[in-house]
Amino acid sequence: MSIGKLATLGFALAGLSCATAGEDRAPETGGAVNSAPVATSVVLETSKGEIVLELLPEDAPESVVNFLRYVRGGFYNGLIFHRVMPGFMIQAGAMNAEMVSRSTDAFPIPNEAENGLKNLRGALAMARTGDPHSATSEFFINHVDNPVLDHKSRSLSEWGYAVFGRVTSGMDVVDSIAAGATETRGRRRNFPVEPVTIIRAYVP
Length: 204
Known about the structure:
Elements: H1 3-14, E1 24-25, H2 31-34, E2 41-46, E3 49-55, H3 61-72, E4 81-85, E5 89-92, E6 102-103, E7 123-126, E8 139-142, E9 163-169, H4 171-178, E10 182-185, E11 188-192, E12 198-202
Parallel strand pairs: 1-6
Antiparallel strand pairs: 2-3, 2-12, 3-9, 4-5, 5-8, 7-8, 7-9, 10-11
């Protein structure tokens, strides 16, 4: 991977954080949701079609339970894929089309990138800040194989991004989202000109 693409990668993922407090608040995510059965499938009903995800709780239990907490709480409904980078990934879980961020009171989860799962095309992974253990609500779907995102060591720069699922149906929708034009809005790069909304995320 070229130095230029690595720099873009660093900006795209390492600098991410969840929305700030005081904005559009997340639904309550208490222990009762944690006690719900662990599902292995989630559907993202988007404005461009459905993306069906297979979750991998045996490999990434913390990430799967965390993701399901947001799904079952309705957190993702109405949010968009706010960062779109063809040949890299599409990312969601932070804001709506008006760039209003939806904040969360949930604690960050441990990074499970040591589980051996790879950031291959169609893999579902947790987004985070430069702190390896800072993931909350944001996730991304790999548009291509991205070995640079895989775990290599426990150093800050090589911890990697935890894969916890994969697309089993709807990669054509992922490709369509990735093909959309993007622009820079304020400090946000790679923001879609015509955002794709997650109408509903649910356990089928």
